[in-house]
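Predict structure. Chain length: 72.
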Amino acid sequence: MNYIPRHNPKGKVERWENVSGIFNVKNETPLIGMHLLLVDDVVTTGATLEACCEPLLKIPGVRVSIATIASA
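Prediction complete.
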């Protein structure tokens, strides 16, 4: 993951552009067929979670669930 500047007070489009393509998977093999749980303390627009899920869902058989404490 690369360094990204803070989101606030960006809108949904700016947040998505801010995190688009920053996550990658270095070794897909151990994740094939896994069910993964992503945890985020607060979901605002979902841009970070969406950007994180994007490369994970390209791995064969991967399913992703999301847990959060709050939404804004």
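Summary: The chain has a mean pLDDT of 85.
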